[in-house]
Amino acid sequence: MAQTLRRPRRTERVHPYTDAVPRATAPVTKDVTHQDDFLGPEVVLVPVKAFHQAKRRLVATLTEAERVRLVRAMAEHVIAACAPLPVAVVCDDDAVARWADALGAAVMWEPGQGLNGAVRAGVDRLARTGTRWVTVAHGDLPRASGLGSLPAFAGLTLVPDRRDDGTNVLRLPADSTFRFAYGPGSFRAHRAEAARCGLAVRVLRDPALAYDVDWPDDVAELGRA
């Protein structure tokens, strides 16, 4: 019989420019994370890329160390904003797995699938354990709040980025056949996919959740906040 995964610990909100990072621990394994245990009827799934590989568009603005600190701090902020819901981090990097485990998140190891495949695999895992609703939130939302308390809606909820191009947050029934299409134009693609699946669509325009960091100008704006 599978063990029950501990409920993720609540973490304090962290400013995106903090230097504090979780202390490295022993490598995380499937036996430690219990990635196929029931987390709850509703879960937030956060895909996190290897910190040293993320946000390479910012190399002209930030040093390597600054970029890694920013990426980690933004992702930690997102996890804190998921309270009171449990959090699962889908990843394929040991450092990210250790970091997520230290924060009390479940770790879903999905190597070699790309963003869309990894998110779909994570949702499928959650659905198999009995989770009914999944909120997918990206880890580059430094002003995120309320991810664990989005208003209920019997369909697909989309939170687009400020350009109405990307999809920063997405809430859907875990057992749907929805095909994720993250990347340029994902907001439009996800609306079309909802129609294919017969899911009603609600669009939430939340300035805090719409603000993500992809380009040097985004970093400059964040520094002015």
Explain what the structure shows:
By secondary structure, the chain is an alpha/beta fold. The chain has one domain (32-224): Spore Coat Polysaccharide Biosynthesis Protein SpsA, Chain A (Alpha-Beta Complex), CATH 3.90.550.10. It has helices at 30-33, 64-80, 94-102, 114-129, 186-197, 207-210, 216-224; strands at residues 42-47, 87-91, 106-109, 133-137, 156-160, 167-173, 201-203. It has a 7-stranded mixed β-sheet with strand order 3-2-1-4-6-5-7, with helices on both faces. Helix 2 (64-80) links the parallel strand 1 and strand 2 (87-91). The chain is globular, with a radius of gyration of 16 Å. The N and C termini lie far apart (49 Å). Mean pLDDT is 87; it is low at 1-33.
- The helix content, as a percent range, equals 25-40%
What is the class in the CATH system?
A: Alpha Beta
Count of distinct strands: 7
Estimate nothing, just give the exact number of structural domains.
Answer: 1
Q: Summarize the main sheet.
A: 7 strands, mixed
Separation, N- and C-terminal Cα atoms? 49 Å
* CATH-assigned homologous superfamily: Spore Coat Polysaccharide Biosynthesis Protein SpsA, Chain A
Total number of helical segments? 7
Rg, Cα atoms, Å: 16 Å
CATH fold label: Spore Coat Polysaccharide Biosynthesis Protein SpsA, Chain A
Q: Please state the average pLDDT score.
A: 87
Strand content: 15-25%
Strand order of the largest sheet: 3-2-1-4-6-5-7
